[in-house]
C-alpha cells in the first residue's frame, strides 16, 4: 500500500505537533520521546504531507516494538497500511546505519576489553533473525578483530556447523583466536546439548592447531548467554 500516492494536502492540525517533536528531540534527545514518537518523527521524512502518528502506533502494535519494526522484512513493512516503499526503505536504512555504527565500535579494538560493544553488535546483528545463523569472529594475536563472517545459515532451530571448517578458515586468515556466535530465533538463549558438543569439538581441534576459542555467544531477543560465563568453555 503506497504512502506517497495517498498523501493528502498538508493539514494544519499536525504541523505544530511535528515541530514540537523535532524540538524535543533536538533539545532533549531520544529519551524525551516515546517509541511511537520516534517512529512518528522518522516517518515524517518519508511522508511529509500527512499525519503519521497512527501509522507509527500501528507499526508498534503489529510488530511488537521499535527494534522489531526496524528489523522487519521490507516486504512485510510495505504491506502495512500507510507504509509504502519510501517509508520502508527509510526504516531499513536506519537499521543498517545502527548496525554499521555498532560494528565500527568493535573494529580495530581489543575485543576482550571492549566486550559490551561486542555484545551490542551481536545483539543488533542477530537477535531478530528468523533463522539460525552461525558467525565466527576471527582475532589476531592482540585480540583485534580480523574478520567477522557468517559461515552457515540454517533453519529456525538448526544450523549445520563443521568444526574442522571453522578452524581451517581461522588458519587461512592467520587468526590466533576466535569467538563463536549464533542466534536462537526461539528467543531462548539457553545452550542446547548439540551447541555444547559442537563447541567442545571446535575448541579441541583449535587447541591442537594453535587457535584459541575465547567464547561462544548465543544471542536471542531475550538476551544472550556466554559459554565462558556458564563454565562450558
Structural account:
The chain has a five-stranded mixed sheet with strand order 2-1-3-4-5, with helices on both faces. Helix 2 packs across helix 3. It is of the alpha+beta class. The protein has helices at 12-28, 35-43, 53-63, 66-70, 74-78, 85-104, 115-126, 163-172, 193-209, and strands at 133-139, 145-153, 177-183, 212-220, 223-226. Strand 3, helix 9 and strand 4 (212-220) form a beta-alpha-beta unit. The model has no long low-confidence stretch (mean pLDDT 87). The chain folds into two domains: 12-101, Orthogonal Bundle (DNA polymerase, domain 1); 109-226, Cytidine Deaminase, domain 2 (3-Layer(aba) Sandwich), CATH 3.40.140.10. The chain is elongated.
- CATH H level of the largest domain: which superfamily? Cytidine Deaminase, domain 2
Biggest sheet strand order reads 2-1-3-4-5
Structural class: alpha+beta
Count the beta strands. Answer: 5
Order of helices and strands: HHHHHHHEEHEHEE
CATH architecture title of the largest domain: 3-Layer(aba) Sandwich
Rounded mean pLDDT score:
87
Amino acid at each position: 500500500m503506497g504512502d506517497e500516492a495517498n498523501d493528502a494536502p498538508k493539514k494544519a492540525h499536525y504541523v505544530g505537533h511535528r515541530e514540537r517533536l523535532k524540538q524535543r528531540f533536538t533539545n532533549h534527545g531520544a529519551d524525551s520521546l516515546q517509541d511511537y514518537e520516534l517512529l512518528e518523527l522518522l516517518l515524517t521524512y518519508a511522508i511529509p504531507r500527512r499525519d503519521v502518528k497512527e501509522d507509527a502506533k500501528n507499526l508498534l502494535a503489529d510488530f511488537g516494538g521499535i527494534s522489531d519494526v526496524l528489523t522487519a522484512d521490507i516486504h512485510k513493512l510495505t504491506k502495512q497500511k500507510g507504509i509504502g516503499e519510501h517509508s520502508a526503505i527509510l526504516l531499513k536504512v536506519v537499521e543498517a546505519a545502527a548496525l554499521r555504527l555498532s560494528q565500527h565500535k568493535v573494529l580495530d579494538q581489543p575485543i576482550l576489553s571492549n566486550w559490551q560493544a561486542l555484545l551490542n553488535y551481536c545483539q543488533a546483528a542477530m537477535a531478530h533473525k528468523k533463522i539460525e545463523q552461525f558467525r565466527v569472529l576471527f582475532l589476531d594475536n592482540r585480540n583485534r578483530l580480523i574478520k567477522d563472517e557468517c559461515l552457515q545459515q540454517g533453519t529456525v532451530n538448526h544450523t549445520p556447523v563443521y568444526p574442522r571448517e571453522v578452524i581451517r578458515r581461522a588458519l587461512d586468515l592467520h587468526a590466533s583466536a576466535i569467538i563463536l556466535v549464533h542466534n536462537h530465533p526461539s528467543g531462548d538463549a539457553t545452550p542446547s546439548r548439540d551447541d555444547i558438543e559442537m563447541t567442545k569439538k571446535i575448541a579441541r581441534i583449535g587447541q591442537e592447531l594453535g587457535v584459541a576459542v575465547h567464547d561462544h555467544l548465543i544471542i536471542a531477543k531475550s538476551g544472550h548467554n556466554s559459554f565462558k560465563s556458564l563454565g562450558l568453555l
